[in-house]
Structure formats: structure tokens, C-alpha cells
Write a structure and sequence with these properties.
Layout: E1 9-13, H1 17-29, E2 33-37, H2 40-50, E3 54-58, E4 60-61, E5 64-65, H3 66-76, E6 81-86, H4 91-100, E7 104-107, H5 112-120, H6 126-133, H7 139-153, H8 158-165, H9 169-177
Parallel strand pairs: 1-2, 1-3, 3-6, 6-7
Antiparallel strand pairs: 4-5
């Protein structure tokens, strides 16, 4: 009788607790030993103890950049397969993530099946890939993402973000009270 096969270990690093926990549960249902971390320091501690084969890393973490974490995880184990997730996608950041060792770069929201495809290095079916590749975000979506990026850069300070965006504070508060624009 052969010993039972150990499930692959995946580490999900995201400061958005509901999203992180949803991914951890979904990976568990797919047969992974899934663990979550809310910061880069917590992720490094888990990585040293667990030696994950896979990692899902949010680009923006409370104690650093997901890009720096990619480099540090690669230094711990060069075989780890990593996917970087972000709500603020840009070509330059995607290139940098892959340059530092990530397998793939995906824009949120994504589900476990998308991440598993990225882990496998698979591409989307030709029609779907072409549709996603040529999809231009709406002006409202681009504005919402820009506001979120500026607000994050200001550490959540609405007054400072309003000054940088050159709009009134109350106008910014109204825009922030709306739900994210979906494409």
C-alpha cells in the first residue's frame, strides 16, 4: 500500500479578508492545502513553515508591495508558482511582476478556476482571450480605478486625495459612496 499523496500547498496573500477567505475555501474544495495571509510579513512566515508550491499575491499589501513579496518568495524557493492579483492593472506592473518571478498577472475579480489556469500557464480559449485582450474599460471604470489608486496613495485621506484630484472633497465622497463600476 502506497502512502497517501499530500495535497499541493497554496498560500493566498490578500489584505481583503472576505476575498482571501473565499479563495482559501475554494482552493480547499479543489484539493489544495490552502492557507491565507493578510500581509507580506505574515506570508513570509507561512512560506518558511509551509513551503508552498503555489502563491496568489495581491499587488497592494498593508506592509509592502506584492512585487517585493514575489522576489522574496522566489528567494525562499525558486520552484514556487506565483500569480499576482490586482484591482489596478497596468502593462508595466504586469511586466515587472513576471520579471520578478510571477507566472502570471490577473486583474481582480478572478475566481479559482482563472488562477488555476494561470498556475498551469494555460491561456484562455482563442475567442475569449481575444475578447478580453481588446476589451477597453469604460470611462466610468477608468475614473473609478484612478480615484481608488490616488486614495490608496494618500493612505485613505479623502481631503488630500481631493486636492490631488482637483475636485471638491464632497464630490469625492459622493463618488466613493457608489459601488465600483463593472465593465
Amino acid at each position: 500500500m502506497s502512502p497517501p499523496e499530500t495535497p499541493p500547498v497554496v498560500l493566498v496573500i490578500d489584505d481583503d479578508e472576505p476575498y482571501r477567505e473565499r479563495l482559501v475555501r475554494a482552493f480547499g474544495r479543489k484539493g489544495f492545502a490552502a492557507h491565507g495571509a493578510s500581509s507580506a510579513q505574515e506570508a513570509l512566515a507561512h512560506a518558511r513553515a509551509l513551503r508552498p508550491g503555489y502563491a496568489v499575491i495581491d499587488l497592494r499589501l498593508p506592509d509592502g508591495s506584492g512585487l517585493d513579496l514575489v522576489r522574496e518568495l522566489k528567494a525562499l524557493d525558486a520552484r514556487v508558482t506565483m500569480v499576482v492579483l490586482t484591482g489596478y492593472g497596468s502593462i508595466a506592473t504586469a511586466v515587472e511582476a513576471v520579471r520578478r518571478g510571477a507566472t502570471h498577472y490577473l486583474s481582480k475579480p478572478v475566481d479559482v478556476d482563472d488562477i488555476l489556469l494561470a498556475f498551469a500557464g494555460a491561456t484562455l480559449p482563442a475567442g475569449e482571450a481575444a475578447a478580453r485582450e481588446h476589451q477597453v474599460p469604460s470611462l466610468a471604470r477608468a475614473e473609478w480605478e484612478h480615484i481608488q489608486r490616488v486614495l490608496a496613495d494618500c493612505g485613505g485621506n479623502i481631503s488630500q486625495a481631493a486636492r490631488l484630484l482637483r475636485i471638491q472633497r464632497r464630490s469625492l465622497q459622493r463618488k466613493l459612496s457608489k459601488h465600483p463600476v463593472r465593465d
